[in-house]
Amino acid sequence: NTVSFNGNAKLSAVGTLHINATASGIHRTGTGTLTLSSTTGIILSASLNADVDEQPTVIEADAGGGVWDPVTGTSGIGVLTVSSPAVLRTQNGALFITASDIDLLGGIDTGTQPLLIGVSRAGSTLGLGAATTTTTGYNLGGDELQRISATGLTIGSEMNSSIEVAGITAADSSSITGLVSVVATRQNAGI
Q: How is the beta sheet containing 79-82 ordered, strand by strand?
């Protein structure tokens, strides 16, 4: 079974969106933006493949929003999970991800375009690599960074609070070329 999208397309779910087309994957044709949106999380168990170059993809895993709590985080709500061996291949299209956290067991490949990752809940913390102070926030570990291939990476926005970057090795970031931006512009935020 194949899940197909053509041109400008949006698939939304009230609750968790789980695409499990493991036999044939997710297939994209036509020009326009593909948007996958959920109020409580997205699980992608199938690879995304595109037949068209340079078309953007937007993933909103926590469109329901809500409040981030520094003690409990989001209690697992709004997480983007990319299962292994699934790979999100945008065929040189930019990929915009907004979630409360990411569980990247599979891969992401944006080719010649950037990957932009932001938190979905105001004030959430962000951690990159071996960060230890962001356990209830959005964490992208070194092993997850190794599964990303992109030309340009932006982590953060005006939504998140502080970002901790720790212990990222050359092997962790070797498939990310171009400019890497770490953004923490919220009042009292730091890197």
A: 17-19, 41-44, 79-82, 101-104
Q: What is the DSSP letter of 29?
A: E
Determine the pLDDT at residue 71: 66
Of residues 138, 142, 88, the one with CA closest to residue 117: 138
Is 68 a residue whose pLDDT tops 80?
Answer: no
- Is residue 6 classed exposed, middle or buried when 0-12, 13-18 and 19+ CB atoms within 10 A define those classes? middle
Rounded distance between C-alpha atoms, residue 6 and residue 123, angstroms: 36
DSSP string, 85-137: T-EEE-SS--EEEEESEEEESSEEE-TTS-EEEEESSTT--EEEES--S-TTS
Judged by DSSP in three states, 71 sits in: coil
Q: Which of the four pLDDT bands, split at 50, 70 and 90, describes residue 8?
A: very high
3-class secondary structure, 143: helix
**Which tens digit of pLDDT belongs to each residue from 116-171?**
999 988 888 899 999 887 666 788 999 999 999 999 999 999 989 899 999 999 99
